[in-house]
Amino acid sequence: MAQQSRGVEVDEYGSPRSPLNSCGTTWERRMSAQLVWRDRNEIPQLDPSVGLPHSEAVESTLTDFYQITMCYAYWKAGKENQHAVFDLFFRKCPFHGEFAIIAGVEEAVRFLNTFHFSNDQIEYLKGQLPTAKEGFFDFLKKLDCSKVTVYAIPEGSIVFAKEPLMRIEGPLAVCQLLETPLLNLLNYASLVATNAARHAMASAANPGNRPIQLLEFGTRRAQGPDGAMSASRYSYLGGFHGTSNVRAGHLFGIPVVGTHAHAFVTSFEGLRDLEGEPKPLGTCEDFVQLVLQYRAEFNRKVATKPTMQNEGELAAFISYALSFPKNCLALVDTYDTIHSGVCNFLMVALALHSLGYKARGIRLDSGDLAYLSKEARKLFKATSKAFDVPFDSLAIVASNDINEKVIMALNQEGHELDSFGIGTHLVTCQAQPALGMVYKLAELDSTPRMKLSQDVEKTSIPCRKALYRLYARSGVAVLDMMQHSADPPPKEGDRIFCRHLFDETKRCYVVPSRVEQLLVCIWQEGKSVGHRPSLKECRDHCIQSLKMVRSDHLRTENPTPYKVSASGVFYDFFKDLWQKTSPIFELQ
């Protein structure tokens, strides 16, 4: 049975339904590139069940030129087929927090499926490498991901710094060429999903802990078309409920929402714009006259400053209600929010109610959102009492340059908002515009490889690793533990010795009640492996994943670092290799 909480309808899972007009669908479908690739039938695929990337830009030459030059040098040195293991990870959690959400994995699989060099691309590269031998280009023509295997943490999972999010194995040359596109596909996706999750958690901490609707409105402010599409897709994965981006709704099945802009309101000068033939609605022969009857009654019973009501605004609201009587939500701050906008909306809402329609609410796009939402709610309640109508729970949506800090400030001050439309700060990630994922060689022909640095934080972690999440009896995650992939996995109930890789004073024993293997095979030698979750499934997994760690790891102010540890055996190996690899200075 669906629940309802003040202006926001809630489904059986506790997820708010949109208070705005929802013209999209919520059915689950396998994402298709049919709307993207003009010549999709000509794109070779290793596994036809996977499909194509959702952008034509995602192909082999979406890379840094030095990847091509390294590939040539590998080929010329006869190293191109050495078996390599690379790790993809980030060193520091974004937004001054202690967690991130991994996203972009599905798109990475689609890229692996279609990776190749076309004849046109080969000809272009010949022009950029005029001294390269012809045999190298013959090598590139045959290159694909049929010998590559990839492990990844499931998309939508909560992840932490310095742990491998993805492990790429295969011939050195092709694995090297995958670096830039894989980083491109996961970096922004994970950043915006994390940003969305943080906004969702901030909004949930509202007075009364009522369900808040989060809507992504950032298409016009995003970094180009691909940025807009990625922002809509991964904001939804991170916990948002809908988007204004129609193309994203069409391509990914995200609920599409929207009402009207100030231009719609200002396009009406007055009630004379509605003159002419009667405007019927439902059982009413002239909806305009019905609204005017309610205006007279509303001004007697509720309004305190009727002279401030703008008739052009009222005409706009009437016109919009005639078009969308079941989903009428009005932007009320074009002239005076309280004395004009909210009052004009309520007159229209009363007329709709008398005909059996339910108005949705209002949107605030400027001013003191906390104060205005409270004043609007007072008018809703006064109207409910004066007319004996259920208007207490009409929705109030805010969309005025909202970000995480603004939401937290509104929570502290107290507000009556039910929904946030968030654009610029969400999609551009203004608080931190890049995540900083890196891609490092961990092993070559079964020999561990390690990058040292005078900055200890930049020292890479060598060898082919497995990653496990250990859970306490309470059900929350205690730590993530790395070890050699060949070592026996940790078992529930065993006493496991865990150590911090870079601080030898930090160590502990853990007796896990549950052990989760995080790195799972998603691509093996030309075939997709395992279940490929839909976007909705990834979103659900993200929401559940955030519930599996302690709240102090997630808080905005002074979050507690989550433990990313190593097994005792792996710690000893790591320190020994560090000592052997690090040069010894000689002082004279």
From TrEMBL:
Residues 62-187 form the Nicotinate phosphoribosyltransferase N-terminal domain. Pfam families: NAPRTase, NAPRTase_C, NAPRTase_N. Pathway: Cofactor biosynthesis; NAD(+) biosynthesis; nicotinate D-ribonucleotide from nicotinate: step 1/1. Transiently phosphorylated on a His residue during the reaction cycle. Phosphorylation strongly increases the affinity for substrates and increases the rate of nicotinate D-ribonucleotide production. Dephosphorylation regenerates the low-affinity form of the enzyme, leading to product release. Residues 464-572 form the Nicotinate phosphoribosyltransferase C-terminal domain. GO terms for cellular component: cytosol. Keywords: Ligase, Phosphoprotein, Pyridine nucleotide biosynthesis, Transferase. GO terms for biological process: NAD+ biosynthetic process via the salvage pathway. It comes from the Eukaryota. It catalyses: 5-phospho-alpha-D-ribose 1-diphosphate + nicotinate + ATP + H2O = nicotinate beta-D-ribonucleotide + ADP + phosphate + diphosphate. GO terms for molecular function: nicotinate phosphoribosyltransferase activity; transferase activity. InterPro entries: Aldolase_TIM, N/Namide_PRibTrfase, NAPRTase_C, NAPRTase_N, Nic_PRibTrfase-Fam, Nic_PRibTrfase_pncB, Nicotinate_pribotase-like_C. Gene3D superfamilies: Aldolase class I, nicotinate phosphoribosyltransferase. Its EC number is 6.3.4.21. Residues 360-459 form the Nicotinate/nicotinamide phosphoribosyltransferase domain. It is an enzyme of class 6 (ligase). Belongs to the NAPRTase family. NCBIfam families: NAPRTase_put. Catalyzes the first step in the biosynthesis of NAD from nicotinic acid, the ATP-dependent synthesis of beta-nicotinate D-ribonucleotide from nicotinate and 5-phospho-D-ribose 1-phosphate. Helps prevent cellular oxidative stress via its role in NAD biosynthesis. This is Nicotinate phosphoribosyltransferase. It comes from Vitrella brassicaformis (strain CCMP3155).
